[in-house]
Write a structure and sequence with these properties.
By secondary structure, the chain is an alpha/beta fold. It has 2 domains: about 150 residues, Rossmann fold (3-Layer(aba) Sandwich), CATH 3.40.50; about 150 residues, 3-Layer(aba) Sandwich (Rossmann fold), CATH 3.40.50.2000. It is about 35% helix and about 15% strand. It is built from 12 helices and 11 strands. A 6-stranded parallel β-sheet has the order 8-7-6-9-10-11, sandwiched between helices. Helix 1 packs across helix 12 and helix 5 packs across helix 9. It is globular.
Length: about 325
Amino acid sequence: MAVGTPTPLSIWAVSDGRAGIEGQVVGLAQAIAAHTPAEIALKHVRYKALVAALPAQLNPLPRAGLADPSQIAPPWPDLWIAAGRASLPLSIRVKRWSRGRTFVVQLQDPRLPPSLFDLVIPPRHDRLSGDNVFPIIGSPHRVTPQRLAADLPRFAAAIDLLPRPRVAVLIGGTSKAFDLSSERASEMARLIREGVEAAGGSVLVTFSRRTPERARSLIAARLRDLPGQIWSGDGDNPYFAYLAAADAVLVTEDSTNMAAEAAATGKPVFVLKMDGTSEKFARFHRELEDAGAARPYDGALHSWSYTPLDETGRAAEEVLRRLESHGASRNHR
């Protein structure tokens, strides 16, 4: 390393490997790395069968219970960014293991005292507060202008031929609060088709792993003869390219991640109704509406403008601010 070159910040992005969870920790880590030299390591946490069910504070030896203990072993990082239930037994102990050197950031609401971590970054709609709590609208993610610009060229040849407005349709599925019945999927497809045909546009459709197969097949069949693309799930994932190419985004109400990512584009975001209700998600959608990003979808497409939400960047700046204070405090002990 050249003389005078700062040592890169060592960051671990810790999750159970699920796409929605990993995207949050990686997104925040990458946003921090955009401000300072950093080396990011992805860490996947999976436990042996009998250990996985233990509550975080009743798992005294979480590293011993890992299916692959080599994933979580010293040397410890400067910055630990984690999300998801599986990470909690490790997150509440890594500070001790590192003798206070590692700064621990936990995403989402850990359902544990925030004082167990250096910083907690939950969605604002969870209504968690505290001195070391930094709520944001939605969740951290990987959508940036640079990421969208980088992914679009791989799919541009086919997308560029499609008529505008190009409408990205992001379909979620079954969760604790929501479901997607055949009846709801049929009505959703009708409204999507109605809006796109009236506007003379095209669709760019992608489904979640949580989308029920019957609903997926029904929506695909009802939209298949519209101009556009319906991603089958095979080959390269066009998700970021669809966001880049879209003039508007339709997203089901079950996903904080997809809605937050859509709102980072600065393009009109329409929320698609699903089966079920959730007051927390209702608060989240009101926050998006108050920010000018989203509106409920009633079958009519229209355009408006707003400042793209950069909650991930805002969270990254807060982490760096607190990390600097943590370093100064540690150096003066």
